[in-house]
Write a structure and sequence with these properties.
Blueprint lengths: L6 H5 E3 L8 E5 L1 H9 L6 E4 L3 E4 L3 E2 L7 E4 L4 E4 L9 E4 L7 E3 L2 E4 L8 E6 L7 E6 L2 E4 L4 E6 L2 E6 L2 E4 L6 E4 L17 E6 L2 E4 L6 E7 L1 E8 L2 E3 L5 E8 L5 E8 L2 E3 L7 E7 L3 E7 L11 E3 L2 E3 L2 E3 L8 E3 L4 E3 L2 E4 L5 E3 L4 E3 L2 E4 L5 E2 L3 E4 L2 E2 L1
Parallel strand pairs: 1-3, 2-4, 3-6, 4-7, 5-8, 6-9, 7-10, 8-11, 9-12, 10-13, 11-14, 12-15, 13-16, 14-17, 15-18, 16-19, 17-20, 18-21, 19-22, 20-23, 21-24, 22-25, 23-26, 24-27, 26-28, 27-29, 27-30, 28-31, 29-32, 30-33, 31-34, 32-35, 33-36, 34-37, 35-38, 36-39
Length: 373
């Protein structure tokens, strides 16, 4: 009779078996890296409960169909005095069909801050896509962001917490590797399908010009549902859309059933659009915005073909700055006089369903074929 096969011996790689201690003081970098290097396709990397201190990036690049399972939610953090300048805590660039659950990555205040906690993106040999993260926490002080995604597609985050202790975003997304963290600097990639369910995004810097989600260059199909965003006592932009490249745009952005909290700052915004081709096909609904800001959405370029269910509030709702265009949108809410069109701005061919009269105000152009019901 053949001996019984133990699946865990064949399919799992335990970091403790490679010498990692997880005692909060030992340098576990080499031991964990050895376990990662031994990880084969379809295998599980196991982190038992503990505090694992590291002094260099953990590189889990170009892996396929792997699982990182953290039992008891162990913590991986930067080791005191380590220089992480221009580096990440965990690099999953090029990985395909990675499943990560229960992992906590944190950048402590001592030492040189990492550029990022988690890096996703393409490499020279792998597109990097189809990854799933559940019940993870990534936070602390980072020069770019706790989570940095440069072109990794079809990524799902469920019940995850991203926290930035600087004014930088807690999640940063771009079609290019602007900070050379994946090894493909300047390359432009396809960049679509990022989904966030039940996540918590925080910026605890206390600054009035902080960022929570940075969407740079271009991306398509992003959905944020049932999620919570907080500035603590600070303020700034929840979604900061930036990019001066010829093709810079964000398209098919969904923000549904989300809540934002923070200090009362006049310049705080849910969305700030400053991209060459603006924001196209935004779907905004069921937003809770208790912040006493001047506006909720501000547009420096274009806002088009979008559906906006805007919250009832005393302050303004949308500001269209000079040179910006608001066109072919469907806007719903208590809108009377709350859509400000600045001099040089234009609103045209929009369908405005307002319960309180004419929605537009300001010195800009807004009489061209807009329909108000």
């Amino acid at each position: 009779m053949a001996p019984e096969v133990q699946p865990t011996e064949l399919e799992s790689v335990n970091v403790r078996s490679y010498g990692a201690r997880g005692d909060g003081s030992s340098d576990d970098t080499l031991a964990i890296q050895a376990a990662i290097d031994a990880l084969g396709e379809g295998q599980v990397l196991l982190f038992p409960r503990g505090h694992y201190r590291i002094s260099d990036t953990l590189r889990c690049r170009d892996k396929s169909m792997i699982t990182i399972q953290a039992a008891g939610r162990p913590l991986i953090s930067s080791r005191g005095g380590a220089d992480f300048t221009g580096k990440a805590l965990l690099d999953l660039s090029g990985s395909v069909r990675a499943y990560v659950t229960g992992l906590r990555l944190y950048s402590l205040l001592d030492g040189r801050w990492p550029a990022a906690g988690l890096v996703l993106g393409r490499t020279a040999t792998s597109a990097g896509h189809m990854s799933f993260f559940q019940n993870c926490l990534i936070g602390g002080r980072f020069d770019v962001a706790p989570v940095y995604n440069a072109g990794c597609e079809v990524v799902v985050f469920q019940n995850c917490h991203f926290a930035s202790a600087t004014g930088n975003p807690s999640y940063w997304d771009s079609a290019t590797d602007s900070f050379d963290l994946t090894g493909t600097p300047g390359a432009s990639h396809s960049n679509s399908r990022k989904f966030f369910w039940g996540c918590w995004f925080a910026n605890y810097s206390g600054l009035s010009d902080a960022r929570i989600v940075g969407l740079h260059h271009w991306q398509y199909e992003l959905a944020f549902r049932d999620s919570y965003f907080t500035f603590g006592l600070g303020g700034g932009y929840v979604f900061d859309l930036q990019g001066n490249e010829p093709n810079a745009t964000t398209r098919d952005l969904v923000i549904d059933n989300c809540r934002v909290e923070g200090g009362d700052h006049a310049n705080s915004r849910l969305i700030y659009v400053n991209k060459t081709n603006g924001l196209d096909r935004l779907r905004l609904s069921s937003l809770v915005w208790p912040i006493a800001s001047d506006y909720v959405v501000e547009v420096e370029q274009n806002l088009s073909d979008s559906d906006l269910w805007l919250p009832s509030r005393r302050g303004g709702l949308v500001k269209i700055n000079g040179g910006a265009v608001m066109r072919l949108n469907r806007v719903y809410g208590v809108l009377g006089g709350k859509i400000w069109v600045d001099e040089g701005g234009r609103a045209s061919e929009n369908l405005m369903l307002s319960s309180t009269g004419f929605p537009f105000a300001g010195p800009g152009a807004y009489t061209d074929a807009n329909t108000t019901l």
